Amino acid sequence: MFRVLLADDEELALVTLQYAFPWREYGFCVQEAVTDSREALGILKRKRIDAAFVDIRMPGLSGLALAKQAREEGIDTVFVIVSGYPDFDYAKEAIGIGVLDYCLKPVSEEEAPQLLKKLRSRILMLRYRKDPAFCLRLLAEEACCESFLSQIVPGEGKGEPALLQICTDRLWELLAQADLLSPDEVFFWGEQEALLIWGKCPDDGRLEEFLEAYQSDALLIFDTARPDPASFQNSLKRIRMERESSEKGKTGLVRFSPISRELKDCFQELISYVEEHFDQGLTLKDLAGHFGIHYSYLSQQFGRATGKSFPEYVKCLRLQAACRLLAETQLKVGDIAEKIGYEDCHYFNNIFKRQYDMTPLQYRKAVREAGGSHKEFPAQEAAGVRRKEQET
Q1: Whether 100 contacts 80, CB under 8 Å
Q2: How far, in Å, CA of 160 to CA of 153, rounded?
Q3: Domains held by the chain: number
Q4: What is the pTM of this model?
Q5: Residue 239 lies in a domain
Q6: 3-state secondary structure of 109
Q7: CB within 8 A of 74, min separation 6: which ones?
Q8: Are residues 66 and 165 in the same domain?
Q9: Rounded distance, CA 199 to CA 217, Å?
Q10: Parallel/antiparallel/unpaired status of strands 51-55 and 2-7
Q11: What pLDDT score does 391 carry?
C-alpha cells in the first residue's frame, strides 16, 4: 500500500479530501491527516510517506514551501498541491520544484481516479528504481541485512520475520487487503509484483485467511526466517528463485516447509557453493561429500529448503546466468551455453525456450530493444512482450 499524508489548515477540507478519492481502489492508504504544515514536515522526516496532498496556503509554511523544504532534505515523497484558487504562477512554481500535480478544490469524481493513476505510476517508477537494488543488497551484504532486520524485528530479536511475494495483475486490490495485515515493508519489482516483509510473522489467523482467499487469484510465495542475516537471506533467495522459475500468469500458494536447524546453519554456505560451481557439472553427490551430509538426507532437505530438486535448482541458476550474459555481452549462444555448463548448444536452446517461451537470441533482442538490463527486464517479461507482438 502507498502511504498518504494530507495537510490542510481547514478541518472540513481534510475530511473532504479523505472522501473525495477512491484511495484503496488504487492501492493508497491515508496514514496521516494534519492541519499544521510544520507537523506535516515532521511526519515526513520520521515516517515513510509515499505521497502528500498539501494545501497551497497554510499559515507558517505554505504547501509549496513544505514541498521545497522536503526536497532539500532528501525526502522523496511525491507531492500534489491542492488549492482553492486557479493561479498560474503558483502552478508554474509547483512544477518547477517537482510537484506532480496542481489541482483545484473541490476535486471532481472524474479527476480523482486519473490523478491517483498518475500518482501511482510516479511512485512506482521511483520505487522500481530503488527497491530491487536494495533487495539485492539485502541478499549480498550481511551488514545491510543486519541493519534492516534491526529496524523491523521486535526488541531483543524475538520476532520471526515473514516474507510474502505477490504476483498478479490485481496487485493493487490485493495490496489493499494486505495492508490490513500491517506489513513493515513493501518492495515493488514491477507493475504486478510486490514483496511484503514482516519483522514478526502475523499470528492472529488473518494472514492464513489472506493466503487462502487469494491463492486462486495470484501467485503467492510465502516463507519465514530466523531474525539473523543468513536465515533471512536464504528465505529471500529461495523466494526469488521460485519466482524466476514460475510461468507468467501462474496462480497458487507456494509455502516453503521449515528445514532442520542443522541444515539451516550451513545452508548459506552450501547455497553459495552451488552458486559458485553450478557451471562445473556439480552433482548432489558431490555436494553431500563436500559438506559431509548423507546423500539421501541432503536430497530430501534440499528440496524442502529451496522448493526445488537439486537439478532444477542448478538449471535455474544456469538460465539466470544465461540471461545476464545474453543481455550484457556479445558472446555467441554456443559460447554462453558452454560457459554456464551445457556442452550441447542445441540442448541449451531447447531448455531456454521451454522455460521462457522464446529462444536465447529472441531474449537478447527483446531486452536490448527495451533498453534495460536483465534485472530490470527479466526473461518472463521479455517473453510477455514477444507474445503481445505476435498477437498483434
Answers
A1: yes
A2: 8
A3: 3
A4: 0.51
A5: yes
A6: coil
A7: none
A8: no
A9: 26
A10: parallel
A11: 46
| 358 assigned to some structural domain | yes
Residue 289 located in a structural domain: no
The Cα 325–Cα 20 span in angstroms is 49
Q: Which residue has the higher pLDDT, 302 or 383?
A: 302
Helix 295-306 crosses helix 284-291 at what angle (to 10 degrees)?
110
- The vertex-156 CA angle with 152 and 158, nearest 5°, equals 70
User: Structural domain of residue 373, as residue ranges?
Assistant: 312-391
- What is the Cα–Cα distance from 109 to 117, expressed in whole angstroms? 13
CATH number for 334: 1.10.10.60
Is a pLDDT exceeding 90 seen at residue 192? no
The C-alpha atoms of residue 216 and residue 275 are separated, in whole angstroms, by 33
Percentage of the chain beyond pLDDT 70 is: 85
Spatial separation of the C-alpha atoms in residues 308 and 300, rounded to whole Å = 10
Q: How many CA atoms lie within 13 A of 185 on its CB side?
A: 19
Asked whether residue 297 is domain-assigned, the answer is no
| Cα–Cα distance, 221 to 254 (Å, whole number) | 5
- Give the list of residues 6+ apart from residue 217 with CB closer than 8 angstroms, or none: 168, 170, 174, 251
The CATH number linked to 77 is: 3.40.50.2300
Cα 1–chain centre separation: 12
Residue 388 has pLDDT above 60, yes or no: no
How would you class 18 by CB atoms within 10 Å of its CB: exposed for 0-12, middle for 13-18, buried for 19 or more? middle
- Give CA–CA dist 324/316, Å, rounded: 12
